[in-house]
Amino acid sequence: MEFFDRAWGFILAGGPVMWPLLAVSVWLWTLILAKALWLWRVGRERVDLDLAVECLLGHAAPPPAKRGLLYDALAMYLDLPSHGGPGDAILWDVAVRHQRPRLRRYLDTILVLVAVAPLLGLLGTVTGMIETFQVICIFGTGNAQSMASGISEALITTQTGLMVAVPGMLAGWALRRAAGRRMNELLAFQKAVGSWLESKEA
Fold first, then answer.
1. Better-scored residue on pLDDT, 118 or 87
2. How far apart are CA 68 and CA 46, in angstroms?
3. Which residues form the MotA/TolQ/ExbB proton channel domain (predicted)?
4. What's residue 174's pLDDT?
5. Other residues' Cβ atoms within 10 Å of the Cβ of residue 24
6. 83, 106, 86, 77: which is closest to 189 by C-alpha?
7. pLDDT at site 106
8. Collapsing DSSP states into helix, strand and coil, what is residue 106?
């Protein structure tokens, strides 16, 4: 209970800018956790070329949808009514390209929120200093308590903005690297299946 009281006091001391900072923090880490969970699930996906060929030949059941990038690309291709013809390699390329935006989803938003957090902290710094100068103009330097309120707002918002941005930046960088690895796996799978389809057409 004491922790929540101190946290509430910290938010109030930071002034009104703390509320958008709090919203940005919640939004940012919701996206980070959602993306990390999705990449972890996709990273566990294992579809080798032999299984893909069995599915393409109709010797194995089509993979279930919503299982991962490779499964979904294969399932989408098999659902196309025109597959099995001379343009199979092109259709396969279309099915794989349809999966690529899923790897980039949320990453740009995460980076934008990481950039917004310290700017909001800077805004809080400016408003806190303005409040401090207003107190000095009205009361002079004799009202230390009123001056401390503005200085606290300036420092707390700056600190909070950096506390949100720095871990978010590191997490966003890690997610981009993980998404890059998944993209390489997808491209390798695309190339392997595409080569098989082209050899079948030859």
1. 118
2. 9
3. 94-185
4. 95
5. 22
6. 77
7. 93
8. coil
Q: Is 46 exposed, middle or buried (CB count within 10 Å of its CB: 0-12, 13-18, 19+)?
A: exposed
pTM for the model: 0.80
CA distances in angstroms from 130 to 11, 121, 125, 126, 153, listed in the order given: 19, 14, 9, 6, 10
User: CB-based contacts of 85: which residues, under 8 Å, 6+ apart?
Assistant: none
For 37-96, the DSSP string reads: HHHHHHHT----HHHHHHHHHTSSPPPPSSS-HHHHHHHHHHH-TTTTSTTHHHHHHHHH
Find, among 183, 182, 202, 196, the residue nearest to 77 by Cα.
196
Q: Which tokens go with 157?
A: 């918002």
Q: How far apart are CA 103 and CA 41, in angstroms?
A: 12
User: Between these two residues, 68 and 124, which has the higher pLDDT value?
Assistant: 124
